[in-house]
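Comment on the following before class.
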Amino acid sequence: MSHMTQTEIGIVAEEEKLTVKQVAKRFGVTPRTITRWIHDGEFPNAKQNRPIPRSPFSIPLSDVIEFESRRDNAINKK
């Protein structure tokens, strides 16, 4: 069994998260579109900051990069 050192644990730091507004700006769409995409499952690891309705979402950068990759692949296939 492998045990992680404190240095290795430090490397596995909290992933950068983006706001709905930041992601919307990145893709040139409205924040409402990003929220719809979240509900459609395009950003599977997006989480609401608080468990109340209309609380803002945090979207992991890895979800955004994966979405970009899927989108780019779909565009290139056309």
Notes: The chain has a mean pLDDT of 85. The first strand starts at residue 17 and ends at 19. The two ends are 47 Å apart (CA to CA). The chain is about 50% helix and 10% strand.
